[in-house]
Design a protein that fits this description.
The two termini are 40 Å apart. The protein contains six helices and four strands.
């Protein structure tokens, strides 16, 4: 999964000291809370926003904790190879002009698309293709869910402090 956006939290050192003094494991609490908050507020939204052809892309969207540069990160994304093409578009329609500038022959292999594009498909099963428009699903899900993610984590950490205080 490649990183698209992130949330940075300040004041973690003070929180770490407070929770440690109470006998709590900040890393464990944050991991549990972050995974839950990202799944509910980003992953689920991304699955709702994702365009569906076969359902493979939607089914592949997940949230996981990974280690990068010695830091534990919680990421929502997909490893499906074509996800960036859906998120950012292709060809002349790619965001920021990052796509191919000239059309190409595309071999249509999906029965759905064969039906939709039947009158333009050549005898060899190809069509002159200019690209596909972007259908963002991860970025909008993150943008819509990030404040709730922070609110959920804050509430979970407050509950953890209350649990450890007795």
């Amino acid at each position: 999964m490649s990183s698209v956006a992130s949330i940075t939290v300040s004041g973690m050192d003070d929180l770490q000291r407070k929770l440690s003094s109470l006998g709590a494991d900040l890393a464990k609490e944050l991991s549990k809370s972050g995974l839950k908050a990202m799944k509910l507020n980003v992953e689920d939204k991304a699955k709702e926003k994702c365009v569906v052809d076969t359902g493979n892309l939607r089914a592949s969207i997940n949230t996981q904790e990974v280690m990068e540069s010695g830091k534990s990160l919680i990421k929502t994304g997909t490893t499906v190879f074509y996800a960036p093409y859906i998120e950012f578009g292709t060809g002349v329609y790619a965001e920021n002009g990052n796509g191919r500038k000239t059309p190409w022959l595309w071999k249509v292999q999906s029965p759905k698309w064969e039906g939709i594009l039947a009158k333009w498909i050549g005898a060899d099963g190809t069509i002159l293709w200019y690209g596909s428009r972007a259908h963002p699903f991860l970025r909008p899900a993150f943008d819509e869910g990030k404040e709730q993610v922070m609110d959920d984590i804050k509430a979970d950490l407050q509950a953890a402090i209350a649990r450890y205080q007795g």
